[in-house]
Amino acid sequence: MRSGLLWYDKSKPLVETIQDATKRYCEKYGVSPNVCYVHPAQFAAAFKTETGFRVPPELNLTVLPKKTIVENYVWLGVAESLPYQYPADPYLP
């Protein structure tokens, strides 16, 4: 990822924070991010299941833990090694 959007929000659950940041990324850059980095402790707390980790499919991006991300921040962008999607046109029905 060459550039991205760093987003801070400690007032909401992690999934909502990622959704808000994704929306802003789409507005600003015109494409959907395909990767999101979060603090490892928050990743574990939000996505841990009995059988491992599961990111909700409605996020529609890869969420990964990264030690260098401070808690309550998310870092979104387009990883060149992952496919990205253009956002839906808001003017189409």
Account of the protein in words:
It is a single chain. A hairpin with a 2-residue loop joins strand 3 and strand 4. The strands form two sheets. A four-stranded mixed beta sheet has the order 1-6-2-5, covered by helices on one side. Helices cover about 25% and strands about 25% of the residues. The protein has helices at about 15-30, 40-45; strands at about 5-10, 35-40, 50, 50-55, 60-65, 75. It has two helices and six strands; from the N terminus they run βαβαββββ. It has one domain (about 5-75). The chain is globular and about 35 Å long. The chain is an alpha+beta fold and about 90 residues long.
Number of strands: 6
Radius of gyration: 13 Å
N-to-C order of helices and strands? EHEHEEEE
Net shape: globular
Helix content: 25-40%
Strand content: 15-25%
Report the sheet with the most strands, covering strand number, pairing sense and barrel closure.
Answer: 4 strands, mixed
Number of domains: 1
User: What would you call the structural class?
Assistant: alpha+beta
| Spatial sequence of strands, sheet with the most strands | 1-6-2-5
Uncertain residue segments: none
Total of helices: 2
Mean pLDDT: 87
Spatial separation of the terminal alpha carbons: 32 Å
